Automatic annotation (TrEMBL), chains A, B:
InterPro entries: DHFR-like_dom_sf (IPR024072), RibDG_C (IPR002734), Riboflavin_Biosynth_HTPR (IPR050765). This is Dihydrofolate reductase family protein. It comes from Paractinoplanes globisporus. Residues 7-182 form the Bacterial bifunctional deaminase-reductase C-terminal domain. The lineage of its organism: Bacteria, Bacillati, Actinomycetota, Actinomycetes, Micromonosporales. Coiled coil: none annotated.
Length: 208, 208
């Protein structure tokens, strides 16, 4: 199974804002797409333990590897910094092999806690093949950003997707839905709104 | 008050598809954006009477006039047909004055049942002024399409908006959200998902 979890977008479909930098990982969106997550018990003691918390907890169990885009691994230009190891500190929250899709490959980086970054310049299908091997029988999470998820959807490589629609209008950035006309034909889609204001969408691939 | 009701969009924000014509009022979207409405008791005996039905019933009460765009009044080129009186038959479902925004003005058309179409070439603010007079103290509905609602939102002329997000990806057509960055600053927004699969969004203007 390939899975997407807790991928947050604005009402107008942007998964990240414009102007990404070392200080603004999501550009002008700031942290606004993820406040719902920070308010859960999964994130902090005393947080909410309703539907948002249930969904956010699905992120890790059963996952054996992640695939992420270059834009998630670092701000534009990270490949010019030989010391760049991602924005997550010495012990990143993945704890599995992570395949980073990039045109600027480098040797793998082994971090604390079980995360190893592998840098590959490959198509979605090729990257998935590599990630599946690394996942050792477990599922592969497609970690984003928007461009990567869109490419994997277009290649019909995603089995389960959880998208969170946050009630803000970003106006600019990277869109999730472009070029995916008719996506609903491949999935059973459910929507559930939360008291926090967000709406959780789940896409379960149907037989094809 | 200016109000928008039951304006249906796809996940990717399109309020109508591409290729509108006399036979395809919503272009390649067909009727897919409005199936949720046809399934309600408001539309047909024996229909659903839950949250979808509650929302759809808000369309008419308290409304004294509607403003609609040229693209809602007819398919492209209608202004070349002097007999064109809209796609709703002799007794249109508005039963109030209707201001049609168009660069091709013509004399008013009085229909059965209280609907009169008035054709004006005006800015949103000017059209609203005309509609308010015609509404005789009641509210004005901004009837769409997407372009017209977007223009009225950009001009900060909408007090209440009900948008229905339908779980399909249209890919092309006319977008609602473009150019509306920061819209959430002006509104209290709620989301409620329905068993039918759609999500109702309500925007209530806060003090400014």
């Amino acid at each position: 199974m390939t899975r997407v979890h807790s991928f947050s977008i604005s009402l107008d479909g942007f998964g990240t804002g414009e102007g990404q930098s070392a200080d603004a990982h999501f550009g002008h969106a700031g942290e606004r797409l993820h406040q719902w997550m920070f308010a859960t018990r999964w994130w902090q003691p005393g947080g909410s333990d309703g539907v948002d918390n249930l969904f956010v907890q699905q992120h890790d169990p059963g996952i054996g590897a992640e695939i992420m885009g270059a834009g998630k691994f670092g701000h534009p230009g990270w490949h010019e910094d030989p010391q760049w190891k991602g924005a997550w500190g010495p012990n990143p929250p993945f704890h599995t092999p992570v395949v980073v899709l990039t045109h600027h490959t480098r040797p793998p980086i082994e971090m604390e806690g079980g995360t190893t970054f592998h840098f590959v310049d490959a198509s979605p299908a090729e990257a998935l093949e590599a990630a599946r091997k690394a996942a050792d029988g477990k599922d592969v999470r497609i970690g984003g950003g928007a461009t990567v998820i869109r490419e994997f959807l277009a290649a019909r490589l995603i089995d389960h997707m959880h998208v969170v629609v946050v009630p803000i209008v970003l106006g600019r950035g990277k869109r999730l839905w472009d070029g995916l006309e008719g996506l609903e034909d491949d999935y059973r889609i459910e929507a559930v709104s939360s008291p926090s204001g967000v709406t959780h969408l789940t896409f379960a691939r149907t037989g094809r």
